[in-house]
Amino acid sequence: MTHLLLVVPRVLLAVPRAIGRLWGRSLWLRVTITTLVLSLIVVGVLGLSLLSRVTTGLLDAKERISVGEATAGLGEALRLLDASDTGPSTPAPERIVDGVVSALAARAGSPATFDVLLLSSQLGIDAPERGTNLVAESSVPPALRAAIVDSGRQSWTYTDIRFLDGRSAPGLVVGAPLSVPSVGAYELYYLFPLGQEQSTLDLVRSAVIVTGLLLVLLLAGVAWLVTRQVVLPVRAASRTAARLADGNLAERMRVKGTDDLARLATSFNAMAESLANQIRQLEDLSRVQQRFVSDVSHELRTPLTTIRMAADVVYDDRDQLDAPTERAVELLQNQLDRFEALLSDLLEISRFDAGAAVLDDDRVDLVGLVERAIATAVPLAERAGLDIRLVTTDKDCFVTCDQRRVDRVVRNLLENAIEHGDLRGIDVRIAHDEHAAAISVRDFGVGLLPGESSLVFNRFWRADPARARTTGGTGLGLAISLEDARLHGGWLEAWGEPGKGACFRLTMPIDRQQEFVESPLPLEDVPLPMPPEVSSEQEADRAPGGKGDPPRNGLNQDASNHEGSNRDGSRSSPAASFVIEGVDP
Amino acid sequence: MTVPAGSTNGSRGRVLVVDDDAALSEMLGIVLRGEGFDPVFCGNGTNALQAFRDSKPDLVLLDLMLPGLDGVDVCRAIRAESGTPIVMLTAKSDTVDVVVGLESGADDYIVKPFKPKELVARIRARIRRTDVPAAQVLTAGDLQIDITAHTVCRNDEVLSLTPLEFDLLACLARKPGQVFTREVLLQEVWGYRHSADTRLVNVHVQRLRAKVERDPENPEIVLTVRGVGYKAGPA
Predict the structure, then answer these.
(1) Chain B within 8 Å of A288 (Cβ-Cβ)?
(2) B116, A313: Cβ pair inside 8 Å?
(3) Percent of chain A clearing pLDDT 90 (strictly above)
(4) Which helix (H) or strand (E) holds A388?
(5) Closest residue in chain A to residue B228, using alpha carbons only
(6) What would the 3-class secondary structure string for A504-524 be?
(7) Which residues of B touch A351 (CB under 8 A)?
(8) Which residues on chain B are in Cβ contact (under 8 Å) with A304?
(9) Do B91 and A312 touch (CB under 8 A)?
(10) Which residues, at least 6 apart from B173, have a Cβ–Cβ distance to it below 8 Å?
């Protein structure tokens, strides 16, 4: 029941909404309906004024004739009354009245063009009153009677003429005072029926209405046709533009004639042509660029392969060489490695720049991937004297991603951490929620200066240009990692503070279709499951700031401490349950 | 199918090197000879097929970019008449190029610049199957796989597989029902010690299915285990 009750108003609401949408969307409909409404108003006003002019004219003429007739009748009545007065004996009032009325009725002709009513003005006296053709006394409005009696002059008004048999019809009443000898004051009323005029007016009105409606419909039709001439090409233009926008660059408008619309089509086509040309040019450029990169790749790699193999052959026999040559061969070997890495990183970057990088998606277990990456990095880490800890509660964490790229990101982050970390080691964390998965790599080395956290992703950027590289990184690793993360629709962010180390966090959607707004892992410093005593206060004081936030001064410490510890508290509570797994090398 | 002739003349096998770069060819020759192989050279794509027929190599090292006939076309031409292992040398590690190369019939690829040891390991992995011991007949689905005779039959009808496809099928069929990850297959069949390009596995599984499945769209012999890898169907 409630369901039905809810549905009905929705349906009722849907109809006006649909009309509103159509109204908003269709210029054609809007122009036609506007024309219809406006012409309806104009025709209505014109028709009303025409009708009122016709009515006034008709009634004025009727009034003039009627008053003339009534005046003449009054003269006749006065003559008759005078004549009856001059006779030898005064006739009975009934006879006088009858005589006057019948004489006047005779003037009306047959059929009667008017009726006559002779009424006595004196109240309380039994004076004879007469009328023709069963006309009723109530036909005369009391106001008119009063006006005639008061002014003693002829007067007229419109009224409904009522008959004793119940009929009634619109009419004009003209009355005048009259004195009947031996009886007293009378009023003589002429009642002119307006049936003729009424039917004329009806005819005119219906003619006006029919003509008006036809006119309105014609105007709407004209508007419909005229708008169509404009709207159809505009719609065609809009359809063409939409198809162009969809990438259908060959789409053009049809040019007909030389009018404004044809000019619109011409300039539209010119625009489309120029757009298509530019796009084609850019595509060509991009293709040339990719082709160039591919060719350079091939041309550089073939000689490099020969050099590489030659160097390897010499290197394998290095124990037969004298010491300086042996060292030279070693240097050659190392630098060839570096050169190769640099070349492949450069090619990778140019592939990103050319937009030629594509994802090769797979369901990948991030925990397994990170474990393998750590296992590979352990020898390097041991040489640097630091250990890598994997901190996670996840048994596994499956994500749709390009395994090669994510693996490369993790390796880059590990290498970076090994290069910049110190003896406190490296913490690798993995976590996920329903939308996103994150991997963070935290070192406790030199850290980053304020503002450097965004610079680290720049190509060939070095924190300290004077500092030597130990792992032989190319300087492109983090830049490539950032591009890899972006390609996955993810983030790669850095945080760091001088002396406290740095943290890099990769966040990726679990599924490419999913959006995420928050990373499951914190980027800023969080205390370890068992933090050293000093760290919690210091860390809390920096937590509200984002990456690269400069340390706050003492004055701010209280407020931020409170805020920070809240945030840290909520963030680090799961940290209590973190399992520190040993890393098998 | 080619029977490896390596052991007859004392070398570990004959390798046809098809590459237009003279220096690289010479260097490859030095390395291959140093490892006990018998290298034969061809400098362009047009003569490659003839050189292949003449030398009857145990393995072909094929550069993807060649003057004359393209490497991919050469690969197709060789594959059309022989299952001899083909390892592509490519300067392009881009997805499309590698996949096109693999789909044209190459068993494996190696990206320039490579280390000599890496190359030798790839070559050995492709030639080594000669010393697979133990006469065995395996089954997978309705297929009989004769390891010794190196043949695969369905109802006495012999299916023509390349050695690599045979190895892949045999590897899966040896442990029916066990799921092999792509990484394990790369290790077992291709001889990679580190994780490599899993597209190798994907492409060759497709090629294998095209030959052994009744309906490659609904495989019954090589089954995909989503998110993990592949396994052989029940016998």
Answers:
(1) no
(2) yes
(3) 10
(4) strand A388-392
(5) A363
(6) EEEEEECCCCCCCCCCCCCCC
(7) 94
(8) 112-113
(9) no
(10) B138, B139, B140, B143, B145, B232
A535 pLDDT higher than 50: no
A312 touching B (Cβ < 8 Å): yes
Say if residue A60 is in the same domain as residue A88: yes
B contacts of A398 (beta carbons < 8 Å): 227
A88 vs B121: which has the higher pLDDT: B121
* Tens of pLDDT, residues B56-75: 999 999 988 787 788 889 99
Of A302, A307, A351, the CB nearest to B91: A302
Do A442 and A564 lie in a common domain? yes
Tell me: do A332 and A421 sit in the same domain.
no
Q: CA of A51: how far to CAs of A43, A170, A208, in Å?
A: 12, 18, 8
Tally A–B CB contacts below 8 A. 65
The verdict on A352 and A379 lying in the same domain is: no
| Total domains present in chain A | 3
Across chain B, what does the average pLDDT equal?
Answer: 83
Q: Quote the ipTM score.
A: 0.74
Q: Do A403 and B95 touch (CB under 8 A)?
A: no
Do B95 and A360 lie within an 8 Å CB cutoff?
yes
Sorted by where each begins, the domain ranges of chain B are: 6-130, 134-232
| Interchain proximity A306–B27, CB inside 8 Å | yes
> Do residues B220 and B139 touch, judged by C-beta distance below 8 A?
no
Give the DSSP letter of residue A441: E
Any domain includes A7: no
- Whether CATH 1.10.150.130 fits B134-232: no
Residue A415 and residue A444 share a domain: yes
pTM score, whole prediction: 0.52
CA distances from A560 to A523, A545, A552 (A): 18, 9, 9
- CB atoms A363 and B27 under 8 Å: no
- At residue A25, the pLDDT reads 78
Section A37-48 average pLDDT:
90
Judge if A369 and A469 occupy the same domain: yes
- A288 lies in some domain: yes
A340 interface with B at CB cutoff 8 Å: yes
Residue A2 lies in a domain: no
Q: Looking at residue A67, which CATH number applies to its domain?
A: 3.30.450.20
CATH 3.60.20.10 assigned to B6-130: no
Inter-chain residue contact A309 with B116, CB threshold 8 Å:
yes
| Residues in chain A within 8 Å Cβ distance of B65 | 298
Cα B175 versus chain centre, distance: 21
A207 and A72 inside one domain: yes
Per-residue pLDDT, averaged over A435-454, amounts to 87
* Segments forming the whole domain that contains residue A323: 252-357
**Coil, strand or helix at A426:** strand
Please classify residue A206 by burial: count the beta carbons closer than 10 Å to its beta carbon, then call 0-12 exposed, 13-18 middle and 19+ buried.
exposed
Residue B115 has its nearest CB partner, among A306, A312, A356, at A312
* Distance (Å) from the alpha carbon of A306 to chain B's nearest alpha carbon: 5
Surface of A (315-334) touching B: CB under 8 A: none
Indicate whether A119 and A212 sit together in one domain: yes
A46 at B interface, C-beta within 8 A: no
DSSP B63-93: ESS-SSS-HHHHHHHHHHH----EEEEES--
Last residue of a domain, one of A357, A386, A411: A357
Q: Which range among A295-304, B193-202, B217-226 shows the weakest confidence by mean pLDDT?
A: B193-202
> Which positions in chain A touch B112 (Cβ < 8 Å)?
298, 301-302, 304-305
pLDDT digits (tens, 9 = 90+) for A160-207: 888 888 788 888 888 888 877 777 778 888 888 888 888 888 898 899
| CATH code of the domain in which A379 resides | 3.30.565.10
Residue A381 covered by a domain: yes
Residues A80-112 pLDDT 10s: 877 776 666 666 777 777 777 787 777 777 677
Q: CB under 8 Å to A179, separation ≥6 — which residues? A: A81, A185, A186
